[in-house]
Design a protein that fits this description.
There is one protein chain. The chain is mainly beta. It has a single domain, classed as Sandwich (Immunoglobulin-like). It contains 1 helix and 9 strands; from the N terminus they run H-E-E-E-E-E-E-E-E-E. The strands form 2 sheets. Strands 2, 3, 5, 6 and 7 form a 5-stranded antiparallel β-sheet that branches. A 4-stranded mixed β-sheet has the order 4-1-8-9, with no helix packed on it. Strand 2 and strand 3 form a beta hairpin. The protein is globular and about 70 Å long. The termini are far apart.
Amino acid sequence: MKKLIAAVTVVLVSACAGGQSRADSPFDPSPESSGRITIVADNLQFNEATLYVLSDGGSRQRIGTVGGKNRATMRADWEGNRELRIEIRLLAGERYTTPGINVTPGERLELMIENPVQRSVVRRTGGGR
């Protein structure tokens, strides 16, 4: 009887776990899904940087932070072929917005946060449709 209860418990736990879906994290390095872009940020500054994606439609989306002298992979919701700019806010208070670049969902971008921050640049690295 104890073996039967143990077997039923294992089956029930497996069935419950199988139906769960993993939450989509902006830091998930998995392949791009429809309506998303991936941004790999290399911070060459000593200060932490908070990043925001700005679209030509006026929306502003916080995508995360990257520590000083660190690299982070972030994802952002994105639809259509629109101009993207990235606002960089350094912990020390300095702020800079990159020039615009046209981006479509599924693209992978690289952001180099330079010193001084005004030399920062965003460019394509692949993954576009």
